[in-house]
Amino acid sequence: MAEKSERYDHKSVESRWQAEWEKAGAFRTTGAAGGKYYVLEMFPYPSGKIHMGHVRNYSIGDVVARFLMMNGRSVLHPMGWDAFGLPAENAAIQHGIHPAKWTYENIDNMRGQLKRMGLSYDWGREVATCSPEYYRWNQWLFLKLFEKELAYKRRSSVNWCPECSTVLANEQVEDGRCWRCGTLVETRELEQWFFRITAYAEELLDHTYKLPGWPERVLVMQRNWIGKSVGAEADFRVEGSDESIRIFTTRPDTLFGVTFMSLAAGHPLLEKITAPERKEEVESFSARAKAEAKRMAVSPDEVEKEGVFTGAYCLNPLTGDRVPVYAANFVLMEYGTGAVMAVPAHDQRDFEFARKYGLPVKAVINPPGQALDPEKMDAAYVEPGVMVNSGPVNGIKSEEAKEAITRLLEEKKAGEKAVTYRLRDWGISRQRYWGCPIPIIYCEKCGAVPVPYDQLPVILPEDVSLTGKGLSPLASSEAFVNAACPSCGGVARRETDTMDTFVDSSWYFLRYVSPKESELPFREDEARYWMPVDQYIGGIEHAVMHLLYARFFTKALRDLGLHGFDEPFRNLLTQGMVCKEITRCQEHGYLYPEEAAGGVCKFCSKPVATGAVEKMSKSKKNVIDPDGIIGRYGADTTRLFTLFAAPPEKDLDWNEDGVEGSYRFLGRVWRLATENVELLKETIPLEPGLKIEGSARELYAATHRTIRKVTQDIEERFHFNTAISSIMELVNALYQFQTELDGKEPHSIEARVFREAVEAVILLLAPFAPHISEELWERLGNQEPVYRTGWPRWSEGAVKEDEVEIPVQVNGKVRARVRIPAGAAEEEARSLVMQDDKIAELTSGKAVRKFVYVKDKIVNMVVA
RNA sequence: GCGAGAGUGGCGGAAUCGGCAGACGCGCCAGACUUAGGAUCUGGUGGGCAACCAUGGGGGUUCAACUCCCCCCUCUCGCACCA
């Protein structure tokens, strides 16, 4: 029956179906009846071409989207461009191309690449954040936040990246380096716009406990970043002065054990209270500490903890004890109040400091059943215990003393309960060109005046000279800078900084719900229908930055009355990295594989090291270009491999042989269908009530088991690798079964079961490899395309088996396999098992001490 | 140091609720077809000659442990002078 057929030509199949989908508007968002589902992948920066990380990210999203579409859901699956950013500007500086031209050309190219991947986006909703139609709403939202005082301007010390020549937000500094280029960050004093994300610190933290669909590690990272500490603040009056030093502590229970005070190098009181004879010493120490601050942030362990006595004393608000005030290099001005009460007996760092400078140690908490002797301690005691030397709270537990002492402070009006966060407000000013202009005008008379709503958007001018040096390129455009004050009409200047591009991506998921709306950033009714995003998919690198900003925006926009939900993303999938083996020469570092032919370095002929698998990156010379792979094997194979080689959240090892394997599999599916196409086209579908027996019955059951497995793997676990492997198993079974089809008529049960199985394979494969599925589906004579065909359903009756083969263990070791009726009761199973020759032999003359039977699963008997 | 996750054949990985460890794929071996094979099809493939031994190591619970409990090791990621 099998006949020779044309070869699987992925090129023609894929381009044909991409054109068909486009022509038919196949993936336009519809209000299907099956309930809404918003699946979103993080939109890319249009750097020029997609990389394997994108391929993986978007393949995962496309499986979800196509699966749900086939299940009749109303699916929103949009794509767009995070299109403002530095690389465009750098390209302009280096190659003289205007950032807009560079960006839009890149977008065109990358859109083409995504289309060649066959992704089911509704391109009618495409957004690009660099278009005025988009960024006018950035400006609109900025003004709304400004009105609510959630956007404000202040002069402060900020992170400055000299390489990028711009300011960075705290979230964008990693280990003291720029997140983008890795350059060590400097500090500068600048006037900057901030978003008051700290106003939402508590809610942002609180809701991390209400996001069960997020990976725990992302939530933990966000909690760490927010860094809430609960404790108390207290005032220590400075002896002989009107000033007092306000401290924050998480250990108010140790307040009676304070023996000195530490101030940060930049603490404003330092200058006022330092004794004249110590001024010089303190000042030089402070200068040194400030200079060292950067190193401190990068590697705190390498910097010696030091301090210098100011000559001043302050008074413990509860005991009246007089304690010396030190300036210390480890106290951070940015955290708490910039002053720390030092309790050497119960804080390790204070302990070391006290020992170093010969300061007293006073124990106020004893371990249960012990008494601390400060003379003999060699480390601070930081655990809870029983209060001593603490006046009114002596004898109570230290955990209870926290509250008791805080109350004492409150009674004395010398302090109160306090909460501190590590989270800082989000600095959004950027001294670069290719970003969204901040809609503010400065007037000498009226100050910072918002641009009126009806004058939005403030258009980014084109005639700007880009050098990469100095401040804000926009300042060089006279036409842009000069403006009339909206308030008094007088001469005024526009703000020349642009917004952090993370602002653009903090609400783009909302624009997708109303991409063409011209009165508002999005329509409330459409947001109510589509939001929150049901499944968000992207890389872990945005665990804090983008995902925290987007959560903040969602809450702020809610409080502006623009929508009514609390969190933007119900479920979050952080996909693993795409990795590949590297080649490395001891002397010449990373090499391209072709530079190490024969296992030796092309430059020095020394043997190279291979085997280590690392994240694909240009610098490691282990990148695979998706275009090459898609050209050679096709989009279907590329998608299939990235989904098959590892579960989505794990790292993926790129392996060309594995790609070959996926290609072979699709070839097998192709031949299975095309070589039997005549028979398959003539065969009529199965109908209920047919009696199916023998190997046909087995294939029938296998088909339905596969449908069940693939369905459950996709919808319950996102385990696409096991879903694909079970399709492969069914294909293997079909190849076996094929030999029985010889001479069978199209109306035979065998042919009909075969047809059902082949069709199931094609439909189950469609979310993973959509082009080949459409092509084969059509060749089998189906009128409706796959994307309009329902997802196959399994029948419980088909899946159920009459007999099962179960392993029989004797003393824990499998000794036989026995066929028993499915669902057999223990007595029946036992009698069948004991009749087995092997088992009878092993148990003869011995007592069966225990007989364990797990229905349809296993028998284990203990024999002695 | 704290927190999260991981450790299974030559490799990627599977085992969903404590029930046959190694599905599926790669690689490798053999055979078939073929002028040819880097195409395709079929079969084999954890180790050991075997009894048996095997899921990072050691204990434990259980009829039964990759899975649960205790101790330890290694790796990845995050946090870390945060008062």
What does this structure look like?
- 36% of the residues lie in helices and 20% in strands.
- It has 864 residues and is an alpha+beta fold.
- Strands 10, 11, 12, 13, 14, 15 and 18 form a 7-stranded mixed sheet that branches. Strands 2-1-26-27 form a 4-stranded parallel sheet, with helices on one face. The chain has a 4-stranded antiparallel sheet with strand order 6-5-9-19.
- Helix 17 packs across helix 18 (635-644) and helix 21 packs antiparallel against helix 22 (720-738).
- The longest helix is centred in the last third of the chain and has 24 residues, at 694-717.
- The protein is globular, with a radius of gyration of 35 Å.
- It starts with 9 loop residues before the first helix and ends with a strand.
- The mean pLDDT is 91.
- The structure holds one RNA strand of 83 nucleotides.
